[in-house]
Design a protein that fits this description.
By secondary structure, this protein is of the alpha+beta class. It has one domain. It is about 55% helix and about 15% strand. It has two helices and two strands, in the order H-H-E-E. It has a two-stranded antiparallel sheet with strand order 1-2. It is rod-shaped, with a radius of gyration of 23 Å.
Amino acid sequence: MVKVLRALTIAVAVLVLILAGTILVLSDPDIPAAELEKRYASASSRFLDVPSGARAHVR
């Protein structure tokens, strides 16, 4: 019984480590809005404020 509990504990620990590693590898940090505007906005770009508080880029 002790061997089964130890094996189960190790298996759960390995799964938690795999899950944590996957989250760290696949998560991307947010890009600041100012950087996106510099990259994608042009002279013909317009920005609309939508009711939810977000800004929409319109050309």
